[in-house]
Amino acid sequence: MAACERENSPPVVPCVGAIVHDDARRLLVIRRGQEPSRGLWSVPGGRVEPGETAAQAVEREVLEETGLRVRAGRVVGRVRIDAGAVVYDVADLACELLDPDPVPRAGDDATEAVFADAATLAALACTPRLVETLGGWGVLPD
């Protein structure tokens, strides 16, 4: 029975998310331009490409989606998102900004990109459980 369940299980897709704060402890967020959760706000991120490490993937995704350069740090948490046909296994990494004057510019899969303080983040339509999850990890903006 367990073997049959595994055979019928959706594939697991490795993904990353970036936890990026600026000097004012605002959190970098993007409005998603693609499914899942198109139009909702989340942290930058995406799939880990073949041959990439999680650190390489998160640095690439932040650059593609926001135009900002970061250095990946430690994993702050993991989430699994069941999207029906696939399950996204997302490792969220703390990232250090490398740009001296970071101004996010939306690109690739993002339609908007901003640094959000706590009040701004609370007013945004975010992906399911984003705020609760980040709060549990202690990485919400100030």
Automatic annotation (TrEMBL):
Residues 11-138 form the Nudix hydrolase domain. Gene3D superfamilies: Nucleoside Triphosphate Pyrophosphohydrolase (3.90.79.10). Its EC number is 3.6.1.13. Signal peptide: none annotated. Coiled coil: none annotated. It comes from the Bacteria. It is an enzyme of class 3 (hydrolase). Its cofactor is Mg(2+). SUPFAM superfamilies: Nudix (SSF55811). Keywords: Hydrolase. It holds the Pfam family NUDIX. GO terms for molecular function: ADP-ribose diphosphatase activity. Belongs to the Nudix hydrolase family. This is ADP-ribose pyrophosphatase. It comes from Blastococcus saxobsidens (strain DD2).
